[in-house]
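Form P-L/3: holo structure prediction, ligand farnesyl diphosphate.
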Amino acid sequence: MNIPNHVAIIMDGNGRWAEERGLKRSEGHRNGGLALEKIALCAKEMGIKYLSVYAFSTDNFKRSKEEVDYLMNLLIKYFKDKLLTICKEDIKVVFSGRYNPLRNDVINAMESIKNTTKDNKKCTLNICLNYGGQEEIVDATLKIHYDLNNNILKEEDLTRDTFYHYLYADLPPIDLLIRTGKEHRLSNFMLYQLFYAEIYFTDVYFPDFLETKFKEAITYYQNKDRRFGNVKSN
Ligand code: FPP
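OUTPUT (holo model):
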């Protein structure tokens, strides 16, 4: 019943989860990775077609070199280790974000998982890495400018729907945004695609956001009356 087509998650609270347990922040990220695997499989089982997750923002490069290096190495290991599971589960992995200034070994691991899973059909996992929502709109604008100048795109064909084709991954609008970890803000995440999303905030830190909690968020969505600017129909 009324399963959202596209769910997005701001996976916040890994660091605090670890600090509250007297662990290093890196342990929080590692456990966040384990939670993500469970959520992705659960989403696929529920029939959710698109799952977007915020793995690393352009602003996360401001963190210590040690934490950035740890996260990048975790991502490479994650893409390599989880590849078989992801393929077996028929999940396609795509990425959103800028390659520059990502390390070559990170880019290679991204390309590899993207190519290996490209024909998978059940669910698309969009990993936002070195991602910023305003940057995405600026980059789309530059591509549109190029296409207009080269007669690839006609001005009258640019609409709010066709604009999606110019975003990093050509995905449908987001129906439900989940943010874990107590904060109530968008943090420059998928600004264009979130235009009519329902938003679910939870105090739970991401490493503890497992299947039951995810299903609670979906139930919250299912109880919403989505009118898209229209009035309620009887
Ligand atoms: C926010 O928590 C989380 C991140 C910056 C990274 C998210 C990464 C993962 C869940 C790891 C695995 C991801 C993939 C795609 C394999 P925070 O560090 O800002 O936590 P805090 O607000 O408590 O400090």
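COMMENT: Residues 65-88 form the longest helix (24 residues).
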